Amino acid sequence: MISINNISVEFSARPLFTDISFVINKNDKIALTGKNGAGKSTLLKILAGQEHPTSGSISMPGDITIGYLPQQMNVSDDTTLIEEARKAFSDLLDLNRELSEITDRLSERDDYESEEYRKLIERLDFLNERLAIEGASNIDAEVESTLTGLGFRREDFDRPTSEFSGGWRMRVELAKILLKRPDVLLLDEPTNHLDIESIQWLEQFMQTKARAVVLVSHDRAFLDNVTGRTIEISCGKAYDYKVNYSNFLELRRERVAQQMRAYENQQKQIADIEDFIERFRYKATKAVQVQSRIKQLEKIVPIEVDEVDNSRLRLKFPPASRSGDFPLIVEDVGKRYGDHQVFDHAEFTIRRGEKVAFVGRNGEGKSTLVKCIMGEIPYTGTLKIGHNVQIGYFAQNQAQLLDGELTVFETIDNVATGDMRTKVRDILGAFMFGGEAVDKKVKVLSGGEKTRLAMIRLLLEPVNFLILDEPTNHLDITTKDILKEAIRDFTGTVIVVSHDRYFLDGLVDKVYEFGDGKVRENLGGIYDFLRRKNLANLNQLETRTPEAAKAGTQTQAVPAEENNTDAGKTDGKLSYAEQKERQRLINRVEKAIKRLEAEIEKLETEQQELEGKLAAGDATEEVLGRYAEVQKLLEKAMADWESEQEKSEMLK
Question: Taking Cα atoms as reference points, which of 232, 192, 214 lies closest to residue 68?
């Protein structure tokens, strides 16, 4: 569909990438990855036609449509939300207006036999047919579904777009792009301004409704759930993998290992040639051989090894004094802005050493409660900070608190203590401040760079209670992993406000959901919470009033325990349609379990056979390779079987 042919890009005579070629096929879902500065956003701009390569070409059909969402863009502020979203259908709306005008004109005429009347009728037929094909009657439903899916409420629809923050206005632009249903979607960090529910809706849209997609994102779970192909830009080249992001990481490690072996062999070859030249340079009898070796050396093309994966670098929080058993006690806390009650009657206790997540739609009060805890804003109720609690707070505007006159290195060196002082440059490098960047003054850094620097500063302060508000927004996947490992090893207490499921997975053991003016506690990790919400969604029809159903309003999902209580207050029975849907899900899960059990049995049999061969001394490369492959397949099958068993237990 789109062919990228040997394109190269240079900035100030320095190559960004060289001779990149690949094809975007119909319905491809592609993750575009690479370190910051590798050229991912530049490549998207070239595909969108906003920039041109230094050399090479892009070939595509003339009628192909492209939707492009950059990281930053100018947004319109002269209409209401619903009017702005409807601009996605401007062509169809123009046809609708023309249809209405022709209908009005025909109603005023009686010259039925005239040529002009006949032409109006023909045009009317054409417009009706075109609008029917394009599905114009569903415009309002499509707009409403997309806006609510991206987190807007119906009461927001008539608000001017100028009242929304920059993040919400980016959602409006994303909605318009999705509504146009282009042949190719080019999305640069689309999840940066979305909450978990909106990200899940966008995933489903991409899987079921989007055509071809090229996606740049630092959200690993989002990439895995949406894409099935990964293109990495590294060392100025493009590497194409027909797998999702997690599988790509495995293949990349193998590729880098192969590159390293080839590099080491080449270095040995170069050293041998140079040694020969040095030894026989001044011997007349060896002049021909020396010249031959010199020419051979000149022809060698140096092998480049891809960027070193610095995820091995480990960060450790400095030791801090022990806090009391209950670092935070929240009792009947509420917060109101004018007539708007953000939340009320929040009540929970966080124990020492717990790591919890605050999740929910944007605007439901996650950051507001954090500000209450920090004493930045007034509130009702009681907030008790425990004995000897030392809080380290990372706010979304933390970057603004840095001293602009200090250099990057000075900013971190001033707070580093002990062994960490010897590793300041390594730490800065892990967070993408390498080389000359450490000598830049803070005031010249971009917003994202300042955010990363503020995060490093916090990592080095001796605290026993961390409160992190959207800490991963400007971090790449590797750096997120470094941060996650550091927080996981942290012995103190942690509150994380985040929409990044992969970051939260395995990190938190309790989730507090903000929604409908309440704060609900959910035991377990982030995926336990999401599974319960999905199950609760099956019973939403039971808890909806006829008025709500008629209005088409969406009921907020509630935890399984609360949902069961509500069900008990009704007749305790599911409707026929709901019973049928539940049974369909049960049948599907049971079928998956049987299939996986058969697969596990087959793999275990093969594993035993291979172990027999290895025990008999048949340790060929083929046997060893297959044995390793079977082990991986068996582990995956067992994990999938456990997951399906959990689903089965929840459904029964």
Answer: 214
> Could you say which DSSP state residue 401 is in?
G
* 133, 139, 144, 145: CA torsion to nearest 10: 10
Burial pattern 248-263, b for ≥16 Cβ within 10 A else e, equals bbeebeebbeeeeeee
pLDDT value of residue 294:
87
Q: Would you say how long the chain is, in residues? A: 652
- Nearest to 362, CA basis, from 174, 190, 192: 192
- pTM confidence score: 0.64
**Which run of H or of E encompasses 227?**
none
- E-strand ranges in 447-591 read 465-469, 493-497, 510-515, 518-523
The DSSP output letter for 110 is: -
The pLDDT value recorded for residue 362 is: 80
Contact 495, 451 (CB under 8 A): no
Stretches in the chain below the pLDDT threshold 70 = 36, 73-77, 131, 133-137, 306-315, 446-448, 535-582, 617, 619, 649, 651-652
Q: Write down the pLDDT at residue 447.
A: 65
496-514 pLDDT, tens digit each:
999 889 999 999 999 999 9
Residue 188 dihedral angles phi and psi, to the nearest 5°:
-105, 105
Q: Which residues is 5 bridged to in the sheet? A: 57
- CA separation for the pair 239, 250 (Å, rounded): 14
Strands ordered across the beta sheet of 328-337: 340-350, 328-337, 380-385
